[in-house]
Amino acid sequence: MASGYVNIRRDVDDKFYRYRMPVLTTKIEGKGNGIKTVVPNMADVARALSRPATYTTKFFGCELGAQTSFDEKNERYIVNGAHDADRLRELLDAFIDKFVLCRSCKNPETDLIIIKQGRNEDIIRDCKACGERTGIDMRHKLVPYILKNPPVKVKKGKKKDVAGADAAVGGGEANGGSGEEQNDGNESDDYLTKKIKAEAAELNDKPTLADEDWSADTSPEAVKARIKALEGSMAAAVLGGDDDGSDDDVNSPYTILGKWIDEEREEVDDPKAFSIAIFKKAEELGIAKKHKTVTVIAQALFSEDMVTEVTQYGALLQKMVTSEKHQKALLGGIERHVGLVHPDLIPAIPKVLMELYQIDVLDEEVITQWGTHVSKKYVDKDTSKKVRKASEPFLKWLEEADDDEEDDE
């Protein structure tokens, strides 16, 4: 059975591509006329696409001319007949192209919206990246099902308009039994309101200069670059809050740096010399001071021997991680590296955090906030929970160390 993650756009051969989904898996059950294909992780795949799992299942049925059935409560999705996993993955690519990707910028960050015009109804893809609204082929056999079973509308109360609130929501599992209200992701408005207000209160008590210092570059040169990017249909990257483009763009400086590190590290004999070369390359690309650069380095530089490599490249990290935002970006890159590329490294997270803490790359407050607040910024929510769950032994050690210091006083 296949496992792991792939780019949502499988035509994008870039391991730094932000949008990823689990590899679709299948299981054949039954015999004869009762044979059927079960998709065990259909719900996880659909969540990564922000579409109901019933849509993808029905799409398979429409394309294969097969009956489908599903039990949403138990997340069991079935297509009648025996179907090869590779064939279903190809059909999933077709579904993504027809019902997920923005026709304008090809970004998967879209919502399906049904618009009524008199007696007619149209389904459009509303892109949260570039702002474009593009239609779908209303002749497809799946369309009647979508119109009868429209996407669930998100209530306004669920919108997270306070910095960091998205990380606070859903963080109950990673809080290590702290007594906070638990949440399974189906948040009520009251629950969200409480969490957002609580987070806002904490933020108001903390300095915000770190974030302001690293806001988007507003120099004339940067503005011209943004305009050029918009004209080249790169609005998704600029409007998405990036500094200098996006790591989703194969021509962005971040992707260039990541691929360069990935190619060059195979020949590395001297980590110190390679560290200097990486920094000079980042300077050459104009992104040496950008926090996203640290995310890319964490993904491209480290291998399965990450614990040892953190020490070897400690000087590079100390030089490049210069703010709280950089620290969070580094943790995000580590999340992607261990969560999506090397899931076998998740149990080693406490050791990685310890090494980074001991060489003063990560602060205690940043680690604690990250470890107790699940976020979907860098990986999917489930992966985020797994990584933070694995960090609990180190978080406990930090807490006990603080208690010891207070007792000494």
TrEMBL record:
GO terms assigned for molecular function: eukaryotic initiation factor eIF2 binding; GDP-dissociation inhibitor activity; GTP binding; translation initiation factor activity
Stored Pfam families: eIF-5_eIF-2B (PF01873), W2 (PF02020)
Gene3D superfamilies to which the protein is assigned, alphabetical: 1.25.40.180, 2.20.25.350, 3.30.30.170
Keyword ATP-binding assigned: no
Any one Gene Ontology BP term: formation of cytoplasmic translation initiation complex
CDD domains per the UniProt record, alphabetical: W2_eIF5
Any one GO CC term of the record: cytosol
UniProtKB keywords: GTP-binding, Initiation factor, Nucleotide-binding, Protein biosynthesis
SMART domains in the record: eIF2B_5, eIF5C
Region (Disordered): 166-188
Compositional bias annotation for Gly residues: 169-179
Segments forming domain W2: 247-408
Family label: Belongs to the eIF-2-beta/eIF-5 family.
The protein, known as: W2 domain-containing protein
Organism of provenance: Coprinellus micaceus
